[in-house]
UniProtKB/TrEMBL annotation:
Pfam families: BPD_transp_2. GO terms for biological process: amino acid transport. InterPro entries: ABC_transp_permease, BCAA_transport_permease. This is ABC transporter ATP-binding protein. Belongs to the binding-protein-dependent transport system permease family. LivHM subfamily. Keywords: Amino-acid transport, ATP-binding, Cell membrane, Membrane, Nucleotide-binding, Transmembrane, Transmembrane helix, Transport. The keyword Translocase does not apply. It comes from Acuticoccus sediminis. The keyword Secreted does not apply.
Amino acid sequence: MGRFAARHPIWSAIIVLAAAVLIWAIFAPWPEALEDAIGRKKIFLNALFNGITLGALYFLVASGFTLIFGLMKNVNLAHGSLYMLGGYLGYETAAATGWWLLSFVVAFVVVGLIGVLLQVLVFRRMEGEDLKQTLVTIGISIVIADLMMWIWGGDFYQILTPAWLSGPIDLPLITGVSRRTGEYIYLTYPVVRLVILLAAIAIGVGMWLALNRTRIGMLVRAGVDDRDMLSATGVRIQRVFVLVFAFGAGLAGIAGVIGGTFQSVAPGEDTRFLLASLVVVIVGGMGSIPGAALGALLIGLAEQFGSVYAPTYAVVLTFLIMVLVLAFRPQGLVAVRR
C-alpha cells in the first residue's frame, strides 16, 4: 500500500477521500427530520449490502469457473448449467428431508461427479483445442438445460431458509434517530445473506491457501505451465486435474443452492450466471482467486447500484466495467504471476 501511495499520490488521495465520505455516510446519525435523506440512506445501504452479497454468490460461481477456465485452460461453457442443476438438486433435497445444509452436500457431490465425467470424457480428449471444447460444452449445456426443463418445468423454485437463519438482524449502521425516544435507528438485514457472505469469504481464503500454500496447489500450477515435465517426475497430473475440475464443478453446485435460497432457480439462470462468471474472470484476471473476488464484488455492486439508481442502464454498466478493463488492463485487475 505504501508503494502504491508513493507512485500514485493523486489516486491514493481520491481513494482515501471516497472511503472517508462512504464511512461518514454510513455511520453518521442523520436527524429524523430529514426523512427524505434517511430514505435515501436506507436505499443506499441496502443496495450496498445487496451488491456485496450478490458479489459473494458470483464469486462462488466464478471461483469454480476460474479454476477450470482460467487456471486449467478448459473452456467449460456448461458451467452455468452445473450451477442451475445444483440449485434444483438443493431444492429437491431440502424439500424431501428438511435439511438445508444437506442440500449443499448433495449438490456438491452430484455436480462434482458430473464434473469428473466432463473432464474424463470430454476435456481429456480435447486438450488444447479451445474451439472444440467451446462447441461441445455449448451442446452439453443445451442438453442439460432441456433435461432440467423436462424434469422441473418452467416454474420458479426457491429453497426455504431454515428457521435458525430466517428473519432480519440489526446491523451497527445508523440510519436515523427516533423522534420519540431519541434512540438510534439501525439498518436491518436478512441473516441468511450475511451467513452466505461469511461462507464465501471462508471458501475464498481456503482456496487461495490451497493453491498457494499446499503441495496440490503447486502441482496444479506446475501442471498447467509444463505438463510434460511434471509427468516425467512421476506425478499423475491427470488425477490432479480431475480432482480440481470436480471441485470447481462442485462449487457451482453449492452456488446453485445459495442462489436458490435468497433468489430462485428457474430456466435462464444458467445463461445469466455463465455470462456473469465470464465477466468476473475477465475483470478479475484469469486463474486468480483474489481477482475473482474483486471482479465479483465490482460486478455485484454495479448491478445493484445500477438497478436502484439507473435501472435502464444496469446491464450496460456491468459490461462497461469489462470493456474498460479490457482496454486498459487486458490481463485483468489481479494478474496471475507465473
